Amino acid sequence: MTRPIAALPDTLVSQIAAGEVIERPASVLKELLENALDAEAQSIEVRLDGGGIRRILVTDDGNGIPAGELALALQRHATSKIRSLSELESVATMGFRGEALASIASVARLTLTSRTADEDQAWQITADDQEATPAAGGTGTRAEVRQLFDHIPARRKFLKTEATEYGHCLTAIERIALANPQVSFRVFHNDNPQRNWPATHIHGRIRDVLGDEFEDQSLPVSADQGLIVLEGCTTKPTFARNRADRQYLYVNGRFVRDRTVSHAVRQAYADVLHGDRQPAYVLFLTMDPAGVDVNVHPAKHEVRFRDSGAVHHYVAQVLAEALAQRGGATVGGPVEAPPAPTLGDDSTAAAPDTAHAGNASQDAAPMPVVPAQTAGPSNPRTPSPIYPARRLIQQRFLLQEHNQDWRTLYAPLPAKTGTSADAPRRPQAQPEALDPRQQPMPADLPLGMALGQLHGIYILAQNAQGLILVDMHAAHERVVYEALKLAVNEAPLPAQDLLIPVVFTATETQVATAQEHQDILDDLGLRIRPTGPTSLAVRAVPALLARGDIEALALGVLADLERIGHSARLAEQRNELLSTMACHGAVRAHRRLTLDEMNALLRQMERTERADQCNHGRPTWFQWSMNDLDKLFMRGQ
Questions:
Q1: For the whole prediction, is pTM greater than 0.90?
Q2: Which residues are 59's β-sheet partners?
Q3: pLDDT class of 358 with cuts at 50, 70, 90
Q4: CATH (domain of 128)
């Protein structure tokens, strides 16, 4: 027999709400820190006992809570952050639901002590009090949480050890500290000082939190498209990790996990990551609050973009440009390359003949000089402060009108001024061999001048910093690959009609997606037509991909179109084919090269994007500085 419907008591309602927001001590700490930031605190102190299980104390120097509002602050759905539906749709604060303090008070002993700048003394209140009482304290708020889940044994038993819970608390602090470099943080555990991060700029905070190695191995990211801003840093592909534990994404200053942006990052790294390794990054995405919905998850870990396709395209494009460094760009600075020929020019700089790439009889022939992409200056690594997202939101999105169309985010990024990419391409003759005494000094060349060949596999070179070792096959493979991509991108991709269409079973959603994006698919050279309510037929594919798994390709493209509005699978599969061609067309190991051929390869690397990694994501060269060499031989010790 079913029980009648009845209203739940307030105590049970509070427990259910707390279960959505408060999972462990780190959840409590996150909510308290976000309240401190919304109060415009400039200094925050965190004290933890027993990994946060026994006590969490957060003290800030923010605006404080007036005495008359302290009791209201502990009530559910009471907040100063929003007042109307329109404000909910354009949230610019960390908190907005008014649930955090009430949820914490229902599962722990919460004491609030606060004082505003206009009050003569601080006021204190607990969950059991009806009114605030006078207390000692400076301007700001002091939130103390004791005995988390102490009266809820079923929840308490799911907590881990104190060390584990402390680790989760520290992770929560790091995530918030990275997004707020203008705020100083101090952390104590069991009265022992653990972290002290003074106010600084974003690069200083990244170095403080993630370490010197992360900062040294990172590439700056900075792009402003009016409606959306992406700043921060992403690490070099060679610094990729086996785990995705160093990926920090912030949307309007809030740490989130988003599949759209994660997919865009993976797409940007598609050509340069080795195996299943994961990139590390700290990215700040700032946009109009009306274009992102943060009211998706109770813990505010997820967001929903109004136009996820535009955001995906923008992030992937910006990161791809940041990763497109020329070989040695981080060693000797930017390289100004002369105009390079394209494949098909009537010049001696021709693409390798892939049909005879592995023939040993080629050893006596000069190594083919492959045209490289034009170079431009790399982004300087100058520390620049990233202002709080709230300030940028207020200045740009809430106080000004923007009539820019979201479709402009699909447009290519503006070309950098002062680069050789602006100059028309013209054929380039094969450089004549120079007398070694007339060659430029190594200081002018990031990858230096070749000294010789090691076992027919590696090139030894000397630059201004020290010694460089180059894997000649891997390096030449990247040079050939980028040249092939450039040639294919400059010409329309021909489609090939299938003599026998590939028909496969599809869901109603997939059929609807194929019909809705029919024009996009046709432009990609992939002609898909429905043959029934639950079947599709592929009648044409890009010519380069005609021998692949057409059904899997079509299903993957449709899945991308359904999720983000566009697909890069055709380009990825095309690039896999070009990568194979480049691998067979690159110079082979154990082939003897002259010094002129080695130097020609080094110059090509300096003009080629992503030349620091081969097509499979492995490094193409390593640098040993003079200090490194001196240490090997104990010079000066």
A1: no
A2: 45, 142
A3: very low
A4: 3.30.565.10
Q: Which of 500, 482, 490, 476 is nearest to 425 (CA)?
A: 490
Report d(CA 441, CA 462) in Å as an integer: 10
What single letter denotes the amino acid at residue 90? S
CATH code assigned at 319: 3.30.230.10
Q: What b-and-e string marks burial along 537-576, b requiring 16 or more CB atoms within 10 Å of the CB?
A: bbbbbbebbeeeebeebbbbbbebbbbbbbbbbbbebbbb
362 inside domain: no
- Tens-digit pLDDT profile for residues 157-180: 888 899 999 999 999 999 999 999
Residue 84's CB is within 10 A of a number of other CB atoms, namely 7
Beta carbons within 8 Å of 104's beta carbon, 6+ residues apart: 18, 22, 28, 31, 32, 110, 145
304 φ/ψ angles, rounded to the nearest 5 degrees:
-130, 125
User: In this structure, what token pair is assigned to residue 585?
Assistant: 């067309």
The total of other beta-carbon atoms located within 10 Å of residue 634's CB is 7
Helix or strand run (H / E) with residue 189: strand 184-189
User: For residue 269, which of 250, 292, 244, 287 has the smallest C-alpha distance?
Assistant: 244
Q: What is the pLDDT of residues 99-120, one digit of tens each?
A: 778 888 888 899 999 999 999 9
Judged by DSSP in three states, 60 sits in: strand
Rounded to the nearest 5°, which phi and psi values hold at 400?
-130, 155
Q: Are residues 250 and 126 in the same domain?
A: no
Same domain, 182 and 102: yes
Q: How many CB atoms lie within 10 A of CB 628?
A: 12
- DSSP state at residue 349: -
Highest mean pLDDT among 264-278, 417-431, 482-496: 264-278
Percent of the chain with pLDDT over 90: 28
Q: Both 246 and 189 in a single domain?
A: no
CA distance 412 to 414: 6
Closest CA to 109 of 146, 56, 75, 155: 146
- From residue 524, alpha-carbon distances to 320, 425, 487, 518, 521 in Å are 21, 27, 17, 10, 5
**Has residue 418 been placed in a domain?**
no
Interatomic CA distance for residues 566 and 317, integer angstroms: 13
Q: Are residues 105 and 48 in the same domain?
A: yes
User: 179 and 268 share a domain?
Assistant: no
Query: Is 257 in the same domain as 390?
Result: yes
Provide the pairing of β-strand 43-49 with 184-189.
Answer: parallel
Report pLDDT digits (tens) over 571-617.
777 777 677 767 777 787 788 888 998 999 999 998 888 888 887 77
Residues 58, 92, single domain; the answer is yes
DSSP notation for 259-298: HHHHHHHHHHTTTT--TT-B--EEEEEEE-GGGEE-TTST
Going by their DSSP bridges, the two strands 247-251 and 621-625 should be labelled as: unpaired
Give the Cα-Cα-Cα angle 140, 141, 147 (nearest 5 degrees). Answer: 160
Instruction: Please classify residue 531 by burial: count the beta carbons closer than 10 Å to its beta carbon, then call 0-12 exposed, 13-18 middle and 19+ buried.
Output: middle
All residues at 6 or more sequence positions from 155 whose CB lies less than 8 Å from its CB, including other chains: 19, 107, 149
Measured distance CA(460)–CA(624) in Å, rounded: 11
Rounded-to-integer distance, Cα 23 and Cα 13, Å: 16
Give residue 119's identity as a one-letter amino acid code.
Answer: E
Structural domain of 312: 205-325+381-410
> Strand pairing partners for 231?
222, 284
Query: How many structural domains is the chain composed of?
Result: 3
Radius of gyration of the chain (CA): 30
